Amino acid sequence: MWFSRKKRIAVRAIVPGIRRLSRWRIRRRNATPATPLETLLKEYGDGQQASTQDYPWCFALPAGVVGHAGPLVGAVQMHTGAVLYVSLPEPALEEFLQPTHSLAFWLARALVARPITTTRRLRRTCRLIETHFCAASGSKQPPALMALLADCCEEDYAGSERCGVACMPWAAWPAVINKGGYLWLWKQNQHGRIVDSRRISLIHK
Questions:
Q1: Are strands 194-201 and 82-87 parallel, antiparallel or unpaired?
Q2: Most exposed residue of 6, 77, 150, 178, measured as fewest CB within 10 angstroms of its CB?
Q3: Residue 43 and residue 35: Cα distance in Å, rounded?
Q4: pLDDT tens digits, residue range 127-152?
Q5: Which among 21, 177, 173 has a CA at the least distance from the CA of 100?
Q6: 16-73: per-residue pLDDT in tens?
Q7: Cβ-defined contacts of 168-171 (< 8 Å, 24+)
Q8: Which strands sit side by side in the sheet containing 82-87, from one edge to the other?
Q9: Residue 63: how many CB atoms within 10 A of its CB?
């Protein structure tokens, strides 16, 4: 069977306390001002009382927000400020956000399953996700990626495959992201089930 290859993606990171490396776009908060993306996620996350919860949130932003030409998809750990994100062309949203184990899901699992303490560890995790998502469609998920699904925090031990729902509760997801005006936040447990979701207006807090 023929599988077409996906477009290559580049995972970028904002991690307080780790020095900046050009390829990985890592920024050290105490050395440089907060980026527009950091500021936006903190401001709107605090407004939703999302920053008090340790488990990472998946997020999506429409094109044109915080200086990026395309939509942003990623994950943020509110209490540490760590962010992993990818800028995508608009047509790619369907491909990368439709599956249960979407790009945003794996970025969130990377934050919770492998706490970022060194640049080497960050590179390895980012490369693993990049490689998987540029592999041929229909390829199996590699064991190293599946290891991110292991129980590793209180929320993992408390959750189950019956928790939450399978799909986002908004019509035309994920194409609706492109209509603009909202920050989308959601949590998926290790089974890919959506256990919380928020649609936050970027105009009126």
A1: unpaired
A2: 150
A3: 12
A4: 999 988 886 555 667 788 888 887 67
A5: 173
A6: 765 444 444 444 444 557 789 999 998 888 777 666 567 899 999 999 998 888 999 9
A7: 168/194, 168/197, 169/197, 170/199
A8: 12-14, 82-87, 72-77, 57-61, 182-188, 194-201
A9: 17
Distance CA 91, CA 109 (A): 24
Q: What is the pTM of this model?
A: 0.84
Q: Tokens representing 6?
A: 């996906």
For the cut 70, the answer to whether the pLDDT of residue 204 exceeds it is no
Pair 51, 42: CB distance under 8 Å: yes
Q: Where are the alpha helices (DSSP H) in the chain?
A: 36-47, 93-97, 103-113, 119-134, 143-146, 154-158
Among residues 152, 128, 130, the alpha carbon closest in space to that of 56 is found at 152
Q: Are 74 and 13 in contact (CB under 8 A)?
A: no
